[in-house]
Write a structure and sequence with these properties.
With about 280 residues, this protein is of the alpha+beta class. It folds into two domains: about 150 residues, Jelly Rolls (Sandwich); about 100 residues, Arc Repressor Mutant, subunit A (Orthogonal Bundle), CATH 1.10.10. Helix content is about 40%, strand content about 25%. The strands form two sheets. The chain has a seven-stranded antiparallel beta sheet with strand order 10-7-4-9-2-1-11, sandwiched between helices. Strands 3-8-5-6 form a four-stranded antiparallel beta sheet. Strand 5 and strand 6 form a beta hairpin. The longest helix is centred in the C-terminal third of the chain and has 18 residues. The chain starts with a strand and ends with a strand. The C terminus is likely disordered. This is AraC family transcriptional regulator. Keywords: DNA-binding, Transcription, Transcription regulation. It holds the Pfam family HTH_18.
Length: about 280
């Protein structure tokens, strides 16, 4: 039997999450986040598709996802994955970038994978400090130095936005989905809204965004669901509020994208300490 351990911590000092997945085989479908992800592979070998580029990940590789970077991954060697990451909301990233650079902007990292990076070591140390709930400023110092190096070596100040802007039709579709995600949206509606045929809409949207319109919709719903769960709203209510057809569909898709069930994720934020939550799953 494979023993899975999924540990999630919200650090109130640093104001971001730390994830640790041990012994997992889970495949993550194509999706994106509305926050930054900085992580590294401890053990295992994975196939990653990010921004329509393929990568083979091994132990010691660092991964960086900007908000809205579409990505999917799965095991390719039959062995389990050990993985750690930190998830940083854009408003928090903006604060840190302003602290480091003196400039108020959101960075866009130019590399999604740093192969065999020396940064995996300080990232591991930072992650462990967060899991151990260290309260002194050593972890903040370490993070600021780590982020400063990432900003200096893997961003370009002139590329604050993606190089290729979506066309006006795709922007209209994205805006509509983001406003009406809780409703039953049909492909016919999106076709009429954009003036594109359904087939051409699907092809153009997927090419420009790196993700299909329906997967974009589901990911938007999950991002909103996380915020509601963080407020302690029960999963059955969240499923209804975010447009999922039923709680089962919501639970299954949430776990496929986040790696935790909605209830497990909610417990991180509603327990008395409000600091740490650890889940162990055996299958």
């Amino acid at each position: 039997m494979t023993r899975e351990v999924r540990t999630v911590v919200f650090d109130r000092d640093l104001k971001f999450e730390a994830y640790r997945f041990e012994g997992i085989m889970q495949k993550f479908p194509n999706h994106f986040h509305d926050y930054y992800v900085i992580g590294f592979i401890e053990q295992g070998k994975r196939h990653l598709l990010c921004n329509q580029e393929e990568h083979i990940l091994n132990s010691g590789d660092v991964v960086i996802f900007n908000p809205a970077d579409p990505h999917a991954c799965e095991q390719i060697d039959g062995r389990t994955l050990d993985y750690r990451c930190i998830n940083i909301q854009p408003e928090v990233m903006r604060e840190y970038v302003l602290e480091i650079t003196g400039i108020d902007y959101l960075p866009r990292f130019t590399h999604n994978v740093l192969y065999q990076s020396e940064l995996s070591s300080p990232l591991h140390d930072l992650h462990q400090m967060i899991l151990e709930d260290q309260s002194d400023f050593q972890k903040e110092e370490l993070f600021l130095f780590l982020l400063e190096q990432l900003l200096r070596e893997y961003t370009e100040t002139e590329t604050l936005c993606p190089a290729q802007e979506p066309t006006s039709e795709i922007k209209i579709i994205c805006e509509y989905i983001e406003l009406h995600y809780a409703q039953n949206i049909t492909l016919n509606q999106l076709s009429e809204l954009s003036g594109l045929s359904k087939y051409y809409l699907l092809r153009l949207f997927t090419r420009q965004k790196g993700i299909s319109p329906y997967r974009y919709l589901e990911t938007i719903r999950i991002n909103h669901a996380k915020r509601l769960l963080e407020q302690g709203i029960l999963p059955i209510e969240v499923a209804s509020l975010t447009g999922f057809s039923d709680q089962s569909h919501f639970t299954n898709f949430f776990k496929r994208l986040i790696g935790l069930t909605p209830k497990q994720y909610m417990r991180i934020f509603v327990q008395q300490t409000g600091v740490k939550s650890s889940m162990e799953l055996t299958k």
